[in-house]
Amino acid sequence: MKRYFGALLALLVALGLTACGQKAAEPVDSQTTAAGVTTTAETTQKVSETTAAETTLAETTGNGPACAGDVINISDELPYQTDWDGDGEMETIDMVEYDYPGVVADTAYKLVLTNGSEIDEYDDLGIWNRYVYLADPDMDGVTELLVSGDAASNDYVTFCWKLTAGEPERVYFDGEIRYGDMEGPQMYVDGGFEGLGDGTQMLFGSNVNVLGTYGGFRPYQFVDGVINPVPDTIWDFVGSETEMTTLLEVKADLVGGRNGTDVTEADAVLPAGTRLCMTGTDCVDCAWFVTSDGQFGRFRIAVGSEGYGWAIDGVGENEIFGMVMPYAG
Q1: Which of 51-65, 80-94, 207-221 is most confident?
Q2: Burial (CB count within 10 angstroms: exposed 0-12, middle 13-18, buried 19+), residue 106
Q3: What is the DSSP string of 245-263?
Q4: Could you tell me the pTM of the whole model?
Q5: How many separate helices (H) and strands (E) can be counted in the chain?
Q6: Cβ atoms of 238 and 8 closer than 8 Å
Q7: I want to staple 256 with a disulfide (CB 3.0 to 4.6 A). Which of 3, 86, 260, 292 is the partner?
Q8: Between 149 and 29, the higher pLDDT residue
Q9: Distance (Å, whole) CA 281 – CA 240
Q10: What is the pLDDT of residue 154?
Q11: Cα 245–chain centre separation
């Protein structure tokens, strides 16, 4: 996972993230999560051309963060007090340990929100560490609380609430198509929150196990009050240095640019011995790559015959590339 840290840090700087409040936002530790970003050739080029903005600091007053579009990392400041509903009284955000069999050390964290005499406890998170952020990514003037944590073996999830004047409102996630059994809005997204991108976008990083890849980055945004992947985006393997070599001939479409969709040559044959790195995937039927000599291409993929892993033209990934790695943290 260390190879993602440099790329992720450069990416977040390039996006010009700033923070307003008591503490500037920091990326989630890249050694414990895979983390997020963009996708198409046009977007990747835009990211690379963006200059870093100067970080600004301001007091947190009223309804959460002082500046729309900024992030406050409160992970190391719990219990954290802020007047999230603007009534002149301080509310409290905290996370406390509780017994939760099945996770590390049989303990986990639950979220505790206190608004005056009203206390809301959320003990269904099941995460054994926590990264806690305040932001207003949809820029509606209402603060969002984002909580990320490890739910399994380096499998991070993120929950979200709107901190309103009354009972905090849970924000749901939808549109994730990696898992066929996920239908309709979910209480969490598979991935760790990494910061804000262009406009109202939120960046998430997650385990994406496709053709030897592990951590992928993708932007999400609010749509009608629900958080969805940004349309026409994929999971991007920014900073991936895992090079693979084909053991067999394999067909691919050559495309224009990184993760491009314009096909320049359909059904091109890559000879055995071709060296390449994966650059992105939709986790459904396409995976993008770049060869060692700079050709961009796209494999048409499908779930393997045994119901897991991936295949290209019916041939399993392990037959094409040898033992693909890594699929574990």
Answers
A1: 80-94
A2: exposed
A3: E-SS-EEEEEESSTT---E
A4: 0.76
A5: 3, 23
A6: yes
A7: 260
A8: 149
A9: 13
A10: 78
A11: 28
